[in-house]
Amino acid sequence: MARRKPLANRRREQARRQRLWTAGVLAALVLGVIALGIVYFLRDEPGEAFASEGNSHLVVEPASYIWRTRPPTSGPHAPQIARWGEHSETVPEWLQVHNLEDGGVIMHYNCPEGCPESVEILRGILDEMGTHQLILHPYANMDARFAVTAWTRRLLLDELDRDAIVRFIQAYRGIDHH
Predict the structure, then answer these.
(1) What is the mean pLDDT of residues 77-98?
(2) In whole angstroms, what separates CA 152 from the centre of its chain?
(3) What is the CATH code for 48-172?
(4) Which is the most buried residue in 46, 91, 116, 120, by most CB within 10 A?
């Protein structure tokens, strides 16, 4: 007949197993948090980051305010937003900024001599991804031919890069900054 361990020994073993199990779970959680931190800091965020210029609402369009980036990526802005979708004329900067604050992404093109093929590619992106929180418009006040902006983010392109633009939109559209 097998002899049973004394009750005190069984309780010590059970407590030891429970401590090992708890230590294992805690170690797994710590490693998971570390892994998430590494993924977060090493992720490839498209575009260039800029410090926020604030998000105050203005009652009247500023006569002389100059945003630090062209096109603007944050700062004082209109109390209302511009209509989402394609615009045939430049959306005023103070409206652009409110659209960005509300999670929008804006595709800008600067083609003084015209670039119908490029605009058609941009229009295709707009059609494919939907117009909600997305604007396409001509914008001459920049040094590049193309730019894509989101709140505190900007991607400048001299040559159209459809994949880079789509990645930018996917990364930043829908992030509200109120």
Answers:
(1) 96
(2) 9
(3) 3.40.30
(4) 91
Query: What is the separation of C-alpha 172 from the centre of its chain, rounded to a whole number of angstroms?
Result: 2
Question: 121 exposed, middle or buried (CB, 10 Å; 0-12, 13-18, 19+)?
Answer: middle
Amino acid (one-letter) located at 9: N
Tokens 């800008």, located at residue? 108
List the beta bridge partners of residue 135.
85, 106
State the Cα–Cα distance between residues 127 and 13, nearest whole angstrom.
65
Q: Cα–Cα distances in Å, from 170 out to 150, 157, 165, 167?
A: 11, 17, 9, 5
The answer for 75, left when phi > 0, alpha when psi is -120 to 50, beta otherwise, is left
Listed in sequence order, the residues at least 6 apart from 149 whose beta carbon sits closer than 8 Å to its beta carbon are 69, 71, 72, 73, 96, 100, 105, 106, 108, 155
Q: pLDDT band for 15, please (50, 70, 90 cuts).
A: confident
CA distance 108 to 135: 8
